[in-house]
Amino acid sequence: MCRRPDPVASPNDKPSLMRYGLPMPTIRILHVITGLGLGGTETWLTRLLPRLPRERFECRVVSLLDLDGEAGALAGDIRALDVPVHSLGLRRGRPSPAAFLQLVGLLRQWRPQVVQTWLYHADLLGLLAARASRCGAAVSWGLRGAYMDFSRYGLATRLTVRACAALSRWPEAVTANSHAGAAHHLGLGYRPRRLVVLENGVDVECFQPDAAARTRLRAQWRTGEGTPLVGLVARVDSMKGHAVFCRAAALVLRRRADVRFVFCGAGTEPGAEELDRFVAAHGLEAAAIRLGRRADVAAVIGALDVLALASLGEGFPNVVAEALACSVPVAALDVGDARRMTGPGGMVAAPEASGPGADAETQALALADLLCRMLELSAEERADMGARGRAHVLANYAAEAAAARWAAHFESLGGTR
To answer: Residue 27's closest CA among 10, 42, 45?
Structure first.
């Protein structure tokens, strides 16, 4: 299990008050998020909250969606931090004026200094509710992706993004979790007054090399240390690239019949229909290790020889930083900030072969080529690449440093309100 970190000090403590023994006023932050399922945005919010110093920040979380089932998977973790969680009870595809009025009422009652929203629907609803409530809060939007194929999503999502672009000068700030995401949304027509890149961070105490866990899991999977393991750690989703990965895996098997492919995440368990089709279509039944959702993701990643990123679109792909923190090298398509994040810890395909404009077959060929090149390295060479990747993450993407940057952002918005 990954330990829950102690809060860290904010880099923006104001000594003028502390010098005279005066208490710093608490900044109330209402986090409004679409849901609390097991996604990258939701996971980062869960990691960020305990790292914001309690003496300076008081946080509450509002989920637009009802918290029953998968949409509320992380609600218990947040409540365990003594952070109140409220749900507006929405169901996907079912707008509700009552839910909007409920959010307005919450804002009027608690009167936060900052409303931080996460994901498009929360951005739009949180902004409108904050203005309607006249609570005086500064609104900060949270852009979490760098590319989405909107043909894979419903009309409501497309209209929401268009509305956000049109209203993007209204919030006091817009944050993006990647440089690629910031540029992409400017291309969509966003024109914010203030645009800030605030990248996610990885818990480097939780995600670190663990030789004992590696040996234990490989024994469970009946794969010895000499069996090459390539993993895709992602829920089954239209943008996560499972079809591309399966095609790439079939190409790799033509050259390396001993390779095994680990699938981890919601929808990857045996019997999950969508992945069943991909695996069968490419003849991977004997080579696939299908785990489904796991609580020991750090151990699963640490058991791999190579982590693959096959996503069609990402902003800040958390799993890349997590794999590198475990000293596992990465083979990635060139999406979002994957190239910047991977650094010396892996290989990234050429943009023309793997970016959003490339077709699925070209992406699969590019990923297969990367994986074969990685597997041709000796174990020692891969270990050295992984070690350099962990050093890169420690220097740039540690969770405590990322949380300090977020704390400074909240200070800048709420410190005078």
So the answer is: 10
User: Are 384 and 403 members of one domain?
Assistant: no
Of 43, 319, 316, nearest to 181 (Cα)?
A: 316
- Report which residue type is found at 335: V
247 burial (CB, 10 Å; 0-12 / 13-18 / 19+) is buried
Do 257 and 378 belong to one domain? yes
Q: What digits encode the pLDDT tens for the residues 53-81?
A: 999 999 999 999 999 888 899 999 999 99
> What pLDDT score was predicted for residue 2?
62
User: In this structure, are residues 32 and 59 in contact, taking their beta carbons and an 8 Å threshold?
Assistant: no
Contact 201, 393 (CB under 8 A): no
Do residues 333 and 354 lie in contact, with contact meaning Cβ atoms separated by under 8 Å? yes
- Reading the block at residue 354, the tokens are 């793997």
Range of the domain at 402: 15-201+398-414
pLDDT of residue 10: 38
Domain with 109 in it: what CATH number? Answer: 3.40.50.2000
Hey, is 292 helix, strand or coil? strand
The answer to whether residues 91 and 99 touch, using CB atoms and an 8 Å cutoff, is: no
Q: What is the pTM of this model?
A: 0.88
Closest residue by Cα to residue 172 from 202, 208, 131, 227: 131
Residues of the chain with pLDDT under 50: 1, 3-20
CA distance 86 to 101: 14
90, exposed or middle or buried, with CB in 10 Å at 0-12, 13-18, 19+? buried
Task: Indicate the SS3 state at residue 332.
Answer: strand
Nearest to 206 by CA among 27, 12, 51, 312: 51
- Close Cβ partners of 388 (under 8 Å, ≥ 6 residues apart): 343, 344, 345
